[in-house]
């Protein structure tokens, strides 16, 4: 006799484990400059907004970006997965990324907001939104360089003020006692 409840739990556990490997595989592919492996982590019809869609277009977009830096180390430091259905899920991934850019060693604090889709039995990214807290050379304080000395985020990094709960938490308080760079201030 088949225990359907147990079988369903096992499938959900296996799905979570498979999804949890995606950011790790992504980090390895970036650091090894394995563009084929990296592109294969996304759904075949991945949408790239105004840049089109599909893995080949994704390859054309990412390859020059991977040449902005020489060495890199992407460290996955946390991952939350929420199964939405048998073939869809979403999650948030925290990452500390380090990049060699000329004589600089840029450290970034990143959160990825992901959507996942199961395609032919394999979990893949169907959307990946990269959001930054800061990017600064290892010799710099993030506050001293406006949280973006690499200049890769137009308008500056979107976190933490991109979280509505964070904004609501600080709205009634003067944060100048705990930060030299409150949101909206310029360095």
TL;DR of this structure?
Residues 12-129 form the SnoaL-like domain. The protein is an alpha+beta fold. The chain has helices at residues 4-32, 35-39, 55-65, 164-170, and strands at residues 72-83, 88-101, 104-119, 122-137.
Mean pLDDT: 92
Q: Biggest sheet: strands side by side, in what order?
A: 1-2-3-4
CATH architecture: Roll
N- and C-termini, Cα separation: 67 Å
Helix/strand structural class: alpha+beta
Main beta sheet: 4 strands, antiparallel
Domain count: 1
* DSSP, total strands: 4
Please write the string of helix (H) and strand (E) elements.
HHHEEEEH
By DSSP (H or I, 4+ residues per run), the number of helices equals: 4
Stretches with pLDDT under 50, minimum 5 residues: none
Rg, alpha carbons: 19 Å
Binned strand content = 25-35%
Please give a structural write-up:
By secondary structure, the protein is α+β, with helices and mostly antiparallel strands. It has a single domain (4-177), classed as Nuclear Transport Factor 2, Chain: A (Roll). Helix content is 28%, strand content 31%. The chain contains 4 helices and 4 strands. It has helices at residues 4-32, 35-39, 55-65, 164-170, and strands spanning 72-83, 88-101, 104-119, 122-137. Strands 1-2-3-4 form a 4-stranded antiparallel sheet. A hairpin with a 2-residue loop joins strand 2 and strand 3. The longest helix has 29 residues, at 4-32. The mean pLDDT is 92. This is Nuclear transport factor 2 family protein. Residues 12-129 form the SnoaL-like domain.
């Amino acid at each position: 006799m088949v225990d359907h409840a147990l079988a369903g739990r096992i499938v959900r556990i296996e799905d979570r484990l498979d999804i949890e490997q995606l950011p790790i595989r992504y980090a390895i592919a970036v650091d090894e400059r394995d563009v084929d492996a990296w592109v294969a982590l996304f759904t075949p019809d991945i949408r790239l907004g105004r840049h089109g869609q599909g893995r080949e277009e994704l390859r054309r977009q990412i390859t020059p970006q991977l040449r902005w830096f020489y060495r890199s180390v992407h460290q996955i430091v946390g991952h939350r997965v929420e199964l939405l259905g048998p073939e869809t899920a979403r999650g948030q991934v925290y990452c500390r990324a380090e990049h060699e850019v000329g004589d600089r060693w840029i450290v970034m604090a990143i959160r990825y907001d992901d959507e996942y889709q199961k395609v032919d039995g394999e979990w893949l990214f169907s959307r990946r939104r990269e959001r930054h807290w800061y990017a600064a050379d290892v010799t710099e304080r993030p506050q001293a360089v406006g949280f973006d000395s690499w200049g890769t985020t137009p308008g500056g990094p979107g976190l933490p003020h991109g979280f509505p709960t964070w904004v609501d938490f600080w709205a009634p308080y003067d944060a100048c006692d705990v930060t030299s760079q409150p949101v909206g201030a310029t360095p």
